[in-house]
Amino acid sequence: MLYTIFLYSVGLICAKAQPFNYGVQNERVVGGWDARPNFWKSQASLQYDSYNDGYWYHICGGSLIGAFHIMTAAHCILSMEPSLYRVVVGEHNLFEYEGTEQFLRVEEIIVHPEWNGDLGNGNDIAIMRLADGVYDNGFVAIAEFPYPGEIVPHDFACYITGWGMMDYGGNVPAILQEAPIDVVEHAVCSTPQWWGSFALETMICAGGDGVISGCQGDSGGPLHCHTDGIWRVHGVVSYGPAGFCNQVNKPTVFTRVSSFMDWILSITQ
After folding, report:
1. Rounded to two decimals, what is the model's pTM?
2. Cys-Cys link to 220, which of 72, 84, 122, 232 (CB 3.0-4.6 A)?
3. What are the phi and psi torsion angles at 182 (to 5°)?
4. Does the annotation mark 75 as catalytic?
5. Active site annotation includes 262
């Protein structure tokens, strides 16, 4: 099973300088459709400038969790050098400048202290502190959190969003995708027919129906669940099966945000 896991952090959006994004190739949520413009206001695009030459590539998603903080997956951190990253909030179409975006420099990267690069060990979560604060332009919002320790029940319908792959080697529209995705409780997801011992209680499994899933380019992005009357970010996209992302009994696996609230608040507050 070790060889069936694939990190969802392959991003192929290219952009030169800000504010314009010139697309080369993009990847999206499998089984989804175009999201409503700026409905998911806490959604962020994490972009990387691997050669420090002004060309920015979308590598992962993220969530705005404070005026100066972005939450993403630890495996999305390709380097601990903040200047190689930027964060874009208020984004919808990565190929076009629409006037809603904010382009933000990263000042500090904080990876969970127990992340060791092993997805099966969990703790796949990181926070980026921004050099400049996000301002409320009407197109962004700070994500709402779940309660500490909160668990979403089996078959609860949540939403996954991101600029991830449509299917294995599939089409590549630049518009943010959304898709409903049902939670698979830990008692099911941790059985041998599903993810077995790779599924920890500090994770959320969702999908596994062979239709809807996260995929390459979605890593670090949010799992939105409507609980207690509002949308909350309950998960951070972590991993899924290699090859075709939407495999039966191999759901997308998210870091469970409610398991890390103490750590998150110790940084953001």
Report:
1. 0.90
2. 72
3. -90, 135
4. yes
5. no
Domain ranges, residue 123: 10-26+41-130
16 & 76 share domain: yes
Give 47-64 pLDDT, tens digit per residue.
999 888 889 989 999 999
- Told to judge if 258 belongs to the known catalytic residues of this protein, a careful annotator would answer no
> Do 76 and 188 sit in the same domain of this protein?
no
Mark whether 167 and 253 lie in a shared domain.
yes
What total of structural domains would you count in the chain? 2
Catalytic residue chosen out of the listed positions 9, 49, 69, 75: 75
> In sequence order, what are the residues at sequence separation of 6 or more whose Cβ sits closer than 8 angstroms to the Cβ of residue 198?
1, 5, 119, 120, 253
Query: Of the listed 49, 92, 124, 259, which one is catalytic?
Result: 124
pLDDT single digits (tens) 91-130: 999 999 999 999 999 999 999 999 999 999 999 999 999 9
Is the dihedral angle over the CA atoms 147, 151, 153, 158 positive or is it negative? positive
Confidence of residue 238 (pLDDT cuts 50, 70, 90): very high
Catalytic residue among 42, 63, 219, 238: 219
